[in-house]
User: Fold these one by one.
Assistant:
Number 1:
Amino acid sequence: MAATASDAEFLRARAAVYDLLAAAFDGDVERLTAAMADGSFRELASALPVEPDVGPLVVEDPDPEALSIGYDNLFVVPGPHYVPPFASAHADEPSHEFESDSAFHEAGSAGELYGDPAARMARRYERLGFTPERGDGIPDHLAVQLSFLSSLAAARADADDLTTRDELRELEGETLAAMGWLDAFDESVADQDRAEGVFAALTRLTRTIVAWDAKRARSEAEADCDEDESRPTSSG
């Protein structure tokens, strides 16, 4: 049985939201400026239980060149304002047997590229047959994770049997639970983007959306468990 019309509509809306956020964190300035100008971010924020400040994201005539430079300074070019946009860099513990020749990484410390979080995300992608196209293909890059969540939501909307939908929902829950690193990422971006604040606001909005979605996913999983436990079992 396929998802109900209302469920499918909700899932497709979530897919569109994550696709927009993925594009923004992949440096797609054209998508970002269009969303800033048409009020998309204000609409997104207003739909959340806790509305984050999106003032810097609501601009009638945003400057694409300034946004491109700001993106590069924060997320692309290592320097005084650089904040790595991938989970491994914000891990609390070093990855197992990780080795790096980077001058910016101390052996035995956390904060590497292609660490355990990347390996775990890559395995999740394999389960869906998902190939990262954003974020330079780095499995735990934020743009890739958001793109994956978009693909999962779209796949759930189109799934025509209960088993497939349950498997997709489980994979979605795992992915959302693995994105707790956004807390540290959000704080770092807020520290480094104090002038214009566009990407600080974008990061806070993304963190809020993911946290809300993770809570929703946990509630769905708990409801399913309660339903399974209350279902009578056959004897004999």
Note: DSSP finds nine helices and no strands in the chain.
Number 2:
Amino acid sequence: MSHRHRNHNCSCQDERRQRWVEPSILYTLWSGPKHGYEIMSTLPELGFVRGSADPGAVYRTLRTMEENNLVRSEWDTSGAGPAKRVYALSEEGRAHLICWLDALKERRDALDAFIRRIERLQPQAVERDT
């Protein structure tokens, strides 16, 4: 997602990707329970996290999601080594991901319309090397 700019102060890369942590976690847990490290390792694959996920942000989000009954957790002491907290998606969490889907579709439609407007203003913007 990198591109060149004449203006080095361009803010278009200054996205607040943290807003995508919650729906990404919900999506990741849809397939089954996972511990925090598993969740963090899958987030970059979804394209909203550059590099590795911020553990603090992920665990803060998981705590908030648990307080809001979107996920539940329990300690797994079955393996060797220290106990691991395992997170699972609740029914409320499943419904919440579907709400995210609707919101994302609306945002996508608005972004598509906005992109078309910009393209009509300056066709050479489309042709520049992105």
Note: Residues 44 and 52 are 6 Å apart (CA to CA).
Number 3:
Amino acid sequence: MIGSIRGRVIRKRASEVLIETNGVGYEVHVAINCELPREGNDAFLYIYTYVREGSLQLYGFMREEERLLFSRLLGVSGIGPRIALATLSGLSVERFAAAIEGEDVAVLSRLPGIGKKTAQRLILELKGKLPSIVAAKDSEYEDALSALLTLGYKKPDIITTLDTLKKKDIQDIETLIREALKYLSEGTGN
């Protein structure tokens, strides 16, 4: 089983990348929001090897937590690799885990391929099983969410904004709220 790949990015597309290592090119499926280096540069991906009915597919992730969540999602009845990858494209690992633990059906059912019943099944099967994934940053996320709700912004707009800002790896709550206010005032919020 392949656990990770380090090699040169030969070709990038929205949901897949071709990585060459030691003269072999590996086609790897990735989340749409996966921030890979430019073609010609080296990349490292954690790999989930998916084998089914004579087919072998590789799924790549920038963080080990993403690979772990992908694996857990595949263990849920009715969730295949396409929906699991779309889930990781739609929400950060931390936000997904918070939605599961908070039983937030509305957030989960907005993901591609996941309706209300599937969201409820995800909660039922994953609640309490993601503590190793939920990071300390999640409390900062919730604090920022609460502060922005108090200021009158709409929850869906705040969630979208905070998920976008999580990719920037902001270190403190004050900066997170300040950046969120800038983003929301540009037209996504009130």
Note: The beta strands are 4-12, 16-21, 24-30, 42-52, 55-61.
